[in-house]
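not sure who needs this but someone in the group chat was asking about Toxin from Methylocapsa palsarum so here u go. i didnt clean anything up, its just raw.
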Amino acid sequence: MSEYRLTQDADDDLLKLFLYGFETFGLAQAEAYRQDMTRCFQLLADNPRLGRKADEFAPGARRHEHANHVIFYDEQRDGVLIIGIVHERSLRRLGGAKTDR
């Protein structure tokens, strides 16, 4: 099984998502979404080409849409490095990275 790692920025993004979910939906839902997100990270580690190229975010980066978020990552020899997790609305405001939604 391949591995995934998170940059400090991605880890901060995941924590912010958890805290927002906790404040908005409660502990059970926040924990369920975090677990769902980590399953998605493992899916990407096992299938690194599942995401589309996202050179507009960072050279060599890939992106994968999950629920209302976009996961940006780099393919590594032993899996993937998660470099950021962004809400799709934030991407539209930035105008740089396009979403298909």
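also The longest strand covers residues 79-87. if thats useful
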